[in-house]
Amino acid sequence: MVRLALAAGVACMFTAAYAEEARPVPVAAPADRPAFPAILPGRGLTQHDFFYAGEAKTQDMYIVRGGKVVWEFHDRTTKGEISDAMLLSNGNVLFAHQFGVTLINPDKKVLWHYDAPANTEVHTSQAIGKERVLFVQNGDPAKVVVVNVVTGRTEREFVVPVRNPKSVHGHFRHARLTEAGTLLVAHMDLGKIVEYDSTGKEVWSHTPGIATWSALRLKNGNTLICGARMVREVDPKGGTVLEFTPADVPDYRFNSMQTATRLPSGNTLINTWFNQWEGPADPKTAPVQALEVTPDKKIVWALRAWGDPVDLGPSTIIQLLDEPSVPEAAHFGDLR
């Protein structure tokens, strides 16, 4: 088992390039209208069981079951925002937190840790089985890395392109393995989605024309893309199958989308992020943290938890736990 020393981080700051190209411009709700309807659809915290984390000034993660928080993690001292997190089938949690990647058990004991080298950042990670972790490291050069957490050995590594090598913070936020064993990378600063095989060869790409935050390959072969003010499903040829924008939900302030997930029901679960660096959230006026939307854009669930009975904080990752799953059952080419 490998355990590296924690590195001292620096405070999270948006670079100029990221601010211009990837950071959504806040859209204020009209003064005479709140940022959400008075009556929200769905059953609040009891709608689904879920694992939750988000980019915030502090590191906070939660498991909610039956409408109650049954597990929580808080680190109010370590620098770095949680941009990606995953609850594994054995109860362990893998999370990328800007200046490193950490694996903890349900008792919050650190099982493995990786420190991002100076002038680099890590915002996304994924477990491959019980022994490997894949992550994308922003930097000059930026690269995809697979580490064996048992031996500590780097088993795969290749460079990926970026628009501005020196503007590290804006390079990447999310990458996800596909069932075919390839890797979908959201090139945030390039406004592009690229699929790579395990050798680093580009096998597919799509340019949606926005600063893409995340992308997910669906079971039907299409790709679900999310970024700022748009969620779009595209077919393998890049044709738009479905698109969702804030204009589809005019009664909500929903203008900073980061991740979207297609549920077994066919609905889409979408988060909207709240920027704590522009000021604290007011529990009375802060927007919803997520919406579950049907294919015809009807809202069936709105999650809003900024106070009583729990303050979940900003949302980025919402992993539903209604049915047992094995998120680490993934492969990257020959690595399983």
Terminal Cα span? 18 Å
**CATH topology grouping:** Neuraminidase
Strand content: 35-45%
Do you know the CATH architecture? 6 Propeller
Could you describe the 3D structure shown?
This protein has 336 residues and is an all-beta fold. It has a single domain (16-24, 36-320), classed as 6 Propeller (Neuraminidase). Helices cover 2% and strands 39% of the residues. The protein is built from one helix and 24 strands. The strands form six sheets. A four-stranded antiparallel sheet has the order 3-2-1-24, with no helix packed on it. The protein has a four-stranded antiparallel sheet with strand order 4-5-6-7, with no helix packed on it. β14 (192-196) and β15 form a beta hairpin. The model is unreliable at 1-31 (pLDDT under 50).
Quick summary of this structure?
The protein has 1 helix and 24 strands.
Secondary-structure map with pairings?
Elements: H1 16-21, E1 50-53, E2 59-65, E3 68-75, E4 84-87, E5 93-96, E6 100-104, E7 110-115, E8 121-128, E9 132-138, E10 142-148, E11 154-160, E12 172-177, E13 183-187, E14 192-196, E15 202-206, E16 214-217, E17 223-227, E18 230-234, E19 240-244, E20 257-262, E21 268-272, E22 290-293, E23 299-303, E24 317-320
Antiparallel strand pairs: 1-2, 1-24, 2-3, 4-5, 5-6, 6-7, 8-9, 9-10, 10-11, 12-13, 13-14, 14-15, 16-17, 17-18, 18-19, 20-21, 21-22, 22-23
Observed structural traits:
single chain; 336 residues; mainly beta; Neuraminidase; 4-stranded antiparallel β-sheet; 1 helix; 24 strands; 2% helix; 39% strand; disordered N terminus
